[in-house]
Design goal:
The structure is a single chain. This protein is mainly beta. The strands form five sheets. The chain has a 29-stranded antiparallel β-sheet that branches. Strands 8, 9, 10, 11, 12, 13, 14 and 15 form an eight-stranded mixed β-sheet that branches. Strands 3-2-5-6 form a four-stranded antiparallel β-sheet, with no helix packed on it. The N and C termini lie far apart (about 80 Å).
Length: about 950
């Protein structure tokens, strides 16, 4: 009890000390001539020495501002900025106590002809309604820096070593350029390839779906969206980069990206070819396409399973064809060839005794794809918009493998062995399209929306089965020899229609009525022919035809309540489902018709304490139908060691999900933390159950419903950034954990498995001006699973990962980068190496004003790279090791080209705009009448 008392006393002391450091600054901003309040003026404090933004806020409709911040014992500038007015500046000797500034007056900019001029100091940060806008010119980066480097300088931005970007604690899942995607919406290509010098503004807002955007609904997402606007003076011209490299072991890489900007029209072309496991195009400025280290998650790197040869070509286009019609489109071609050799040790956990399987395989897989995406947006009139997004793709693939397997019991007795040498060719086509239509009415927030979606896909396959399986029984060995040809065709057609009408009841309350219609047809037709004793004869036992048809109508109703600080959303619907299934197996037809009435509902509550401190609570109740293959009581004998049969008595899966998120970012101290808790609870979950033959280890599998399984995840992250003179320090800690409870039946014996995973991490980045960057990090993951009613009591595994990334930009024109990592995997099988080092290094020199770079880089300097890992499930423990790239050295040359020209004859009324120019916004300075 005394310990609890002292803990509470200490907590109160710390909280009180922190609270005593808080102050409140407030005041009212008015027009000096009209005495009217100025809404959405940006009020901010900067250091006198280098104009670093300390904190900021905006004024409300009454011109009032209130800023909760920390004490600061140094002289600062109070600045107020609003478009069309002179910047208000007042020096403060320090921010040591709460203060009411009273009325602060802005003077409108006018010239001798009484014309408004919009030339004033651009604030580094501006709030425009729900959008946070950064003025890129206020933040200094190297002349050759890319967009990623710029964003890292912006207050509240963070990009970790895995490439995940957050703003004020919220993860970013969309990055646009002038409001349109740049190849893809995640922005990876734009981050690495667009130069920072062409960016004028960085705008941050809540991510919205297209439906939310068109109907002007509040965002229900916890993600942020970024829009980069390009400086108009550099919005006409071209820029790009060409790269080529060749190295030891015939390793090579080449890439090209070219961008042509002509005001609203933008065309980008990219191409890439390499055999170093890079399948994307988001190049790192130090290591280019080389994987590992800082590129382990970015650049489309395959992560280590096999060696991939990749060829890629893409074109992106966007333009405003007229005042009412805009278009965006892209085309991508890619060809990938992957070769891999793997070794697997797997333990199947049984009620009494375990089975042990060792296997090895050698695979080659190739795919060639063509994909085209389009988006057309038509503004029919000021209140009606139509957006059409068709997508079409085609993929051809082929794959061959050679595998060997052996299964023994715990006494070492061989149960079965098998060899397989299959070959398969596939051709898949897909067409999908979404039509978004929205009509707004005169009454604010009243609108009707229609969303139609279709997805049509088909896959044709041809294959060869060449396998031998030996089952070791007490009375002898049974052989299952298969030499067959297969021909398959899978078709899936789905259509959905979402109709919804929104009616505002009050300024803060809206209700929605609508109906969802869904239609889905699928068919899987597999024919297997003998290719041995009776070539061309249909083998009925491994041939099957399954089709399903699902029609669903879902009336729905929802409401949104939005107040000053919180938003509440509630949605509910009931789905009336017809689910018809058909199978033809061994000339026997089986029909299964199901009828369901399924409930769905979700609720979201978001409370916003301040601009960067908020919490979100979500609850979701849903139902999901079993698949046709899980339902149909038809044997699948295609796996000679596992016979699978469906269960027609399966019920729909009920899922209850709860999600709690809390985020708090302190702009003043550049620090913040986030916490989350998520949980899923299942009733009637569909799980597979297996019975193992004691003599041979062969399985028979079916499906049942199990209730009471669940999983929960929780975690948090804290980070801070400190900047003093040329020194910048960013550091943080994170902790994630997961607990899951699974249960089922093996050999008709009930079992359960309780799994816990905990993953802490700590990271730090130090930057010295534009000369040096050092980033050490460490994390580990501990996984333990406890079993009941099985031969194993528990199993566990620990993976340690440590890394160090360094980059120096000194002497001038020289860039020297190193990525060093260490991985230790504690409980791998004895025949797998448990740890390895991965060290990549790169040295480059810039010529011709840093437009031409010559580079030498070495991958895996110590030649220790490996790919080995452990996967723990409720019924098995699997260790796998695969082929990886080993040490190679490469010499490459990269050349940057670019030319921008300001639009000729461009003149602005009242003089030229300053750095913070742009549209006036909703209220702006007043234009005087002549």
């Amino acid at each position: 009890m005394s310990r609890l008392y002292y803990f509470l006393l200490f907590f109160i002391f710390v909280y009180s000390a922190n609270a005593q450091n808080d102050i409140v600054l407030k005041g009212t901003v008015v027009d000096i001539n009209t005495q009217l309040p100025v809404e959405l003026a940006t009020v901010y404090f900067t250091t006198i020495k280098d104009s670093t933004v300390i904190d900021y806020t905006t004024t409300d409709k009454n011109g009032f501002f209130r800023l909760n911040t920390k004490k600061l014992d140094q002289s600062v500038f109070l600045k107020i900025n609003y478009l069309g007015y002179q910047t208000y500046t007042e020096e403060q000797k320090g921010l040591l106590e709460s203060k009411d500034f009273g009325k602060l007056y802005l003077l409108e900019n006018v010239n001798a002809l009484n014309e408004v001029i919009v030339k004033s100091e651009a604030p580094p940060i501006r709030m425009k309604q729900d959008t946070l806008e950064y003025n890129a010119a206020s933040y200094k980066v190297r002349p050759d820096a890319n967009v990623e480097t710029l964003l890292k300088q912006l207050p509240g931005f963070d990009i970790d070593e895995a490439g995940k970007m957050t703003v004020n604690g919220r993860e970013v899942n969309q990055l646009l350029v002038n409001g349109k995607p740049f190849f893809d919406r995640d922005g990876a290509i734009a981050l690495k390839n667009l130069p920072a010098e062409i960016i004028q503004k960085v705008q941050v807002s809540d991510f919205k779906t297209k439906k939310e955007e068109l109907s002007k609904q509040e965002s229900t997402s916890d993600y942020s969206s970024i829009n980069l606007t390009i400086d108009e003076k550099k919005n006409k011209g071209y820029f790009g980069k060409i790269l080529g490299g060749y190295g030891s072991d015939d390793r090579y890489e080449s890439s090209l990206i070219m961008n042509f900007f002509n005001n609203k029209q933008k065309i980008s072309i990219l191409g890439s070819s390499n055999n170093i496991n890079s399948t994307g195009f988001a190049q790192d400025e130090v290591f280019d396409n080389m994987g590992g280290g800082r590129n382990s998650q970015g650049s489309g790197n395959t992560g280590g399973k096999g060696i991939t040869h990749s060829n890629l070509l893409g074109v992106n286009y966007s333009d405003d064809w007229s005042k009412y019609l805009s278009a965006t489109g892209s085309y991508n071609f890619d060809n990938k060839i992957n070769k891999n050799e793997s070794t697997v040790n797997e333990i199947s956990i049984l009620p009494s005794g375990n089975n042990y399987t060792t296997s090895s395989s050698k695979t080659r897989n190739e795919s060639t794809g063509n994909k085209a995406n389009f988006e057309l947006e038509y503004k029919i009139n000021p209140t009606t918009r139509l957006v059409i997004t068709p997508n079409v793709s085609q993929t051809r693939s082929n794959g061959s493998s050679n595998s060997r397997n052996e299964t023994t019991d715990e006494n070492g007795r061989i149960l079965n062995t098998s060899t397989s040498d299959p070959y398969r060719e596939n051709m898949s086509t897909n067409f999908s399209n979404t039509i978004n239509f929205n009509k707004a009415f005169e009454k604010k927030a009243r609108n009707v929306s229609l969303v139609f979606t279709n997805n049509n896909s088909g896959t044709d396959s041809d294959g060869i089965v060449d396998s031998k399986t030996f089952l070791y029984k007490q009375d002898g060995v049974e052989e299952d020899r298969r030499l067959q040809k297969t021909k398959g065709r899978n078709i899936s057609d789905s259509y959905s229609l979402d109709l919804e009408y929104t009616e505002p009841i009050t300024d803060s309350l809206r209700i929605r009525f609508g109906t969802d219609f869904d239609w889905q047809n699928t068919s899987n037709d597999l024919k297997t022919f003998d290719n041995d004793l009776s070539p061309g004869t249909l083998v009925d036992s491994v041939s099957n035809y399954i089709s399903s048809k699902r029609n669903m109508i879902s009336p729905k109703v929802g409401l949104t309540l939005k107040k000053n600080k919180f938003t509440f959303n509630l949605n509910t619907r009931t789905a009336i489902v017809d689910f018809d299934n058909h199978s033809l197996y061994e000339n026997k037809a089986t029909d299964l018709e199901k009828r369901y009435a399924l409930s769905f509902g979700n609720m979201q509550l978001r409370y916003k304490f301040s601009r960067s401190k908020f919490f979100t609570f979500k609850y979701d109740y849903s139902n999901a139908l079993p698949s046709a293959s899980q339902l149909m009581p038809v044997e699948d004998l295609n796996n000679s060691l596992n016979t699978v049969t469906g269960n027609p008595n399966l019920d729909p899966i009920e899922k209850n999900s709860v999600n709690f998120d809390f985020k708090n970012f302190d702009f003043r101290t550049r620090s913040g933390y986030s916490l989350f808790i998520r949980g899923d609870y299942f009733n009637n979950d569909v799980v597979s159950i297996s019975d193992f033959d004691d003599e041979t280890g062969k399985r028979t599998t079916t499906y049942i419903n199990i209730s009471g399984t669940y999983s929960a995840t929780a975690g948090g992250n804290w980070s801070q950034s400190i900047k003093k003179d040329a020194h910048t320090l960013r550091y943080g800690v994170g902790l994630n954990g997961k607990y899951s409870f699974d249960k089922g039946f093996t050999n008709k014996t009930f079992y359960n498995a309780k799994s816990a995973v905990i993953s802490p991490k700590v990271y730090l980045t130090y930057e010295y001006g534009e000369l040096l960057t050092i980033s050490p990090s460490y994390g580990f993951s501990y996984n333990q699973t406890n079993y009941e009613n099985t031969s194993a009591n528990s199993t566990s595994n620990v993976v340690h990962r440590a890394g160090l990334q360094t980059t120096t930009y000194w002497p001038a024109n020289l860039i020297f980068g190193n990525d060093f990592g260490y991985t230790y995997n504690s409980n791998l099988s004895d025949n797998f190496k448990k740890d390895f080092y991965l060290w990549n290094t790169s040295l480059s020199y810039g010529f011709l004003n840093k437009t031409l770079y010559a580079k030498i880089k070495v991958y895996d300097v110590l030649n220790q790279n490996q790919s080995a890992g452990r996967t723990i499930s409720a019924t098995s423990v699997r260790d796998e090791e695969s082929t990886v790239l080993k040490r190679y050295a490469m010499f490459s040359i990269a050349y940057k080209i670019g030319n921008f020209a300001a639009e000729k004859g461009s003149k602005r009324r009242g003089g030229e705009r300053g750095q913070g120019g742009g549209d006036r916004g909703d209220r702006g300075g007043r234009e005087r009448e002549d």
